[in-house]
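ingest -> validate -> predict -> emit
validate: passed (alphabet ok, no gaps, 177 aa)
predict: started
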Amino acid sequence: MILSAGAIARVALLALLAAVLQVSGVGEIRVLGGNVDLVPLLVAGVALYAGSLPGAAAGFLVGLLLDLALGRILGASSLVLIAVGYGVGRFGELRDPAHGLIALPVGAAASAGYALGVAVVAYLLGVTPSPSFALVRELALSVVLNALLALPVFDLVRRVLGPALVTDPQRRARRRA
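emit:
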């Protein structure tokens, strides 16, 4: 990603949009007992297309906005989203993100990592009750829902960040023989 004022503004706008949508009601949508979570999908999309450092920065920004808006312990979500953004960004730097369905496994992995990371941080801080089967079932359903929602979210991120990216993420890199 070309670091310019426009690129930073695009990432900040996406982060603000994701935080506002998540807090305003998308997070309350329940399908078969699982919740929809846009935050790890947005961070994973930015990280996959822009790289590990912009992904980690986007994770910090979205996590901070989310913690401030919901009144949670400050930095808990940011800590987990930095790791998610950096991990997905490294994956995108090492592998070819040009495949059209790359959003499904990356979105599922980012959602699972975020859900487990937030659960572990909350448990270590003594905020939530002990893990149970119902919690595991809800986390699994949320990961499946987020994986299905990853395709349109990643497409939106690719379209918004497109002018700021060095290469087109949809163009497949040729392998040397």
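The longest helix spans residues 133-161.
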